[in-house]
Amino acid sequence: xxxxxxxxxxxxxxxxxxxxxxxxxxxxxxxxxxxxxxxxxxxxxxxxxxxxxxxxxxxxxxxxxxxxxxxxxxxxxxxxxxxxxxxxxxxxxxxxxxxxxxxxxxxxxxxxxxxxxxxxxxxxxxxxxxxxxxxxxxxxxxxxxxxxxxxxxxxxxxxxxxxxxxxxxxxxxxxxxxxxxxxxxxxxxxxxxxxxxxxxxxxxxxxxxxxxxxxxxxxxxxxxxxxxxxxxxxxxxxxxxxxxxxxxxxxxxxxxxxxxxxxxxxxxxxxxxxxxxxxxxxxxxxxxxxxxxxxxxxxxxxxxxxxxxxxxxxxxxxxxxxxxxxxxxxxxxxxxxxxxxxxxxxxxxxxxxxxxxxxxxxxxxxxxxxxxxxxxxxxxxxxxxxxxxxxxxxxxxxxxxxxxxxxxxxxxxxxxxxxxxxxxxxxxxxxxxxxxxxxxxxxxxxxxxxxxxxxxxxxxxxxxxxxxxxxxxxxxxxxxxxxxxxxxxxxxxxxxxxxxxxxxxxx
Length: 507
Fold this sequence. Notes:
CATH architecture of the largest domain: 3-Layer(aba) Sandwich
Helix content: 40-55%
Number of strands: 11
Mean pLDDT: 86
Largest sheet: 9 strands, mixed
Number of domains: 2
Radius of gyration: 27 Å
Strand content: 5-15%
CATH topology of the largest domain: Rossmann fold
Strand order of the largest sheet: 3-2-1-4-5-7-6-8-11
Structural class: alpha/beta
CATH superfamily of the largest domain: Vaccinia Virus protein VP39
CATH class of the largest domain: Alpha Beta
Number of helices: 18
């Protein structure tokens, strides 16, 4: 058994930004692997290190107890710790870091762990021995992991969990349009979670990707002093087998129990067909065309109308509504077209959902939040037991957020709190609508808008602050400034003409 690393080493690692350090080191490893393949290598290694650290921690506890049962599988399972057989423990991986066989040793470790833990069967990547993966660089990354421990105290236990999420984000950036299959930006997820407040109950995501909705739900519970194991139960489904495996690892690395069923199409092979939930949080594929609607014409889930076979937006929504219990809530990310489309019966479905008083709120989000698409999105908040029956909150957040790169915007902590705070005040009956940002509408007002739910129709235009300058004086000043600009423009035009004439290109 390898001894735990010194506590101060672990703290230093966290302080210097381990996630970034890990990414920079591991990125050297990529070589000629594409991002999709490389993702499994890096994330699989993070998960293996996590399993071994958790096992080591429990192992030392059992040694200290002195009963000689440190190799008893049951002593680990009862603490929700995966059993790691000797050949798969990090001490052995580390010793082999700079041998030609390191890739095969890691693959064998993954297989050994799967044999000992039914929950991980067919989940872990076993592609480290491939010839195109540089073994010298792989050894360097193993060394980096060897120098971090994450289990010394409760406050820092999530170091590798943070690294896992960080790498998911970086891979999303690299994979571009394919990123939507596994990653929803954390700022969007956190906004939904803060609005819904899934503090206690059953949480469901029918298109769960890598499990970000569950991670943030668990974080919400912990932040508010709850117990994740006792307070929430997690259910999900994912059709992509690779992404399903990412989710299993992402939840496992954080000690989150979840029923994800088998990877399968949610519409045709619902893994939780008869289950009802308190909270549904989801970011389904936008405007999905080939979703199998032709074979589901009479499905019981289509209470509000048959969704168009060429767009799954309202199929997703009705699937989620079907799975709500009597007091359930939904937080759903959809393309903006879902707010106003009248084609193929979508307008009728939207109207029926509004008339059933399920729509608690709509949030128009700013553009450029996703790595995978530039499509403007909105948040649908649905509630089976609204605190304000007959009323809907509209929020226009399109001008919010901060550009973190030339192409990517991020919702800040302040932005999230403002939107979530508006919902909180609305539910308490204390919200003062803010022109240009928020408005409350009843069914009659929505009907006058032909059941189009675009927030801009309801919130109006924000009033500009009066600068105190009299109108006549302001117009005189602006007119003078424009006149000077015109004069300068004319001067420059004449100068350009003269220059062109001088070289024989006059006109």
